[in-house]
Amino acid sequence: MKKFLLPFEDSIKERFDQSENLINPPFPNWQKSFVSGSASPLFKVDHRIDSAIENLLLTQVEFKPSAEGPPAHVHGGASAALIDETMGVIAWHSKHPSVTENLNLNFVKALPLNQTAYLATWISQIDQKNIQVQCAILSAKNVIFVSGVGLFHQLSKEQLERFKNLMNP
């Protein structure tokens, strides 16, 4: 497996603590999300935009007991949902409304349930129709538990309008 490189060398916890740009997910109806919504049964998440690196989202997450898979560890599907949503957050925040087309994940190390974890999520490539986003779930000391690359299809104005009409019939 190819080494996964983060876009920074210092501790993600330090970067998160120094970033004051707290954001909510910029897509419609995020409050209802089972990932980022306030009533999420799996996670408590806080998103911040890094103040030094463009298009870098820093996320702090506390996993709730219902995110358990293997004993005392986070379920892989819960990790996948969290990565997918944070990738969407940075894409939409960067003015590229999009939906997941492909998601590739590497489960590097078992993720303990009882510790705060962090995500680093950033856009690595943009073309006319697609956005490539990278993400890693990390410990406070940058130990990588899960890494991934996602391809997101940018929505046309018509597709975005259809989403808005579905939310407000």
Structural class: alpha+beta
How many domains is the backbone divided into? Answer: 1
CATH superfamily: Hotdog Thioesterase
Distance between the termini: 47 Å
CATH-assigned fold name: Thiol Ester Dehydrase, Chain A
Enumerate how many helices there are, as a single number. 3
Name of the CATH class: Alpha Beta
Compute the CA-based radius of gyration: 15 Å
Using the alpha-carbon principal axes, give the shape: globular
Sheet with the most strands, sense and barrel status: 7 strands, antiparallel
Low-confidence stretches: none
Number of DSSP E strands: 7
CATH architecture: Roll
Helix and strand string, N-terminal first?
HEEEHEEEEH
User: What is the percentage of strand-forming residues?
Assistant: 25-35%
Estimate the mean pLDDT confidence.
Answer: 91
Widest beta sheet: strand line-up:
1-2-3-5-6-7-4
Helical coverage, percent range: 10-25%
